[in-house]
């Protein structure tokens, strides 16, 4: 594994997805233990897609499973497709198969209700749930201990797609948005003010199909509308990129 720092970023390059997944799972467990010891609970927003599946399975199994304070862990989602929770396209469904269904006693699991016909209502319900759990004042933002993110081949993160109105929303915790990539299913997503308010933001990026976009995001000129992942700049938290070698060849 190689590491290099660029401004405030911590970029770590791994030989393959297996090594990346092990590192991501270890980071998750370490942050969880630290947050639980400091504040009595750990709050995390999970990401979907195929890249985090192996990391989730590692966290659901010994020895890492036993190092995470699951009974103090509150699990949220960064985004969701507007499909039923048992759909193969559901981020919750993937997480439930790989980690949530194996955890037992958990502080809380809070899914986005993507199956609701009114997608804005789904977003507003999620905002209300987050406000309740974090005990937010009106207009307040949650501070997640950890936000996990993937990056699409178009440079999007969560469900914040290039040149979409959701990129510029600053007065909401979650919004409904139109898709940018297949499958063309509407989404619900956390907004950039929420993602950038986290204590730790951890990107996981793997695969040659991500290389071109990753190169532009990390080293290209600023293009926050065309490459939404460039907008991830935590206000006071820590940003870590975990990438495999194939993704770094762009």
Keywords:
Rossmann fold; globular; three-stranded antiparallel β-sheet; disordered N terminus; alpha/beta; 6 helices; 250 residues
Descriptive overview:
This protein is α/β, with parallel strands linked by helices and 250 residues long. It has six helices and eleven strands. A hairpin with a 2-residue loop joins strand 1 and strand 2. The longest helix is centred in the first third of the chain and has 23 residues. The chain is globular and about 45 Å long. The N terminus is likely disordered.
Beta-strand share of residues: 15-25%
The overall number of domains is 1
- CATH topology category name: Rossmann fold
Any idea what the shape is? globular
End-to-end distance: 18 Å
| Total count of strands | 11
Major sheet: 8 strands, mixed
* Helicity range: 25-40%
Uncertain ranges:
3-7
Q: Taking all residues together, what is the mean pLDDT?
A: 94
Q: Radius of gyration, rounded? A: 17 Å
Order of helices and strands: EEHEHEEHEHEEEHEHE
The CATH architecture term is 3-Layer(aba) Sandwich
**How many alpha or pi helices?**
6
The SS-based structural class is: alpha/beta
Strand order of the largest sheet: 1-2-11-10-7-3-4-6
Q: Tell me the name of the CATH class.
A: Alpha Beta
């Amino acid at each position: 594994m190689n590491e290099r720092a660029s401004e405030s970023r911590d970029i770590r390059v791994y030989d393959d997805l297996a090594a990346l997944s092990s590192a991501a799972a270890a980071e998750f467990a370490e942050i969880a233990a630290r947050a639980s010891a400091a504040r009595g609970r750990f709050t995390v927003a999970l990401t979907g897609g195929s890249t985090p599946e192996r990391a989730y399975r590692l966290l659901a199994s010994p020895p890492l499973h036993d190092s995470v304070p699951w009974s103090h862990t509150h699990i949220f989602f960064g985004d969701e497709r507007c499909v039923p929770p048992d759909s193969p396209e559901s981020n919750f469904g993937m997480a439930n198969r790989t980690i949530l269904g194996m955890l037992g006693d958990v502080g809380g699991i809070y899914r986005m209700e993507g199956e609701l016909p009114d997608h804005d209502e789904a977003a507003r319900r999620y905002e209300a749930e987050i406000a309740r759990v974090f005990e937010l004042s009106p207009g307040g933002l949650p501070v997640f201990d950890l936000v996990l993110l993937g990056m699409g081949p178009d440079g999007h993160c969560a469900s914040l797609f290039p040149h979409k109105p959701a990129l510029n929303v600053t007065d909401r915790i979650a919004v409904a948005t139109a898709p940018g990539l297949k499958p063309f299913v509407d989404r619900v997503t956390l907004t950039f003010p929420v993602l950038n308010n986290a204590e730790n933001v951890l990107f996981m990026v793997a695969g040659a199909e991500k290389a071109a976009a990753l190169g532009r995001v990390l080293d290209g000129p600023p293009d926050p509308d065309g490459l939404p992942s460039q907008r991830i700049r935590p206000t006071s938290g820590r940003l870590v990129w975990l990438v495999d070698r194939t993704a770094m060849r762009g």
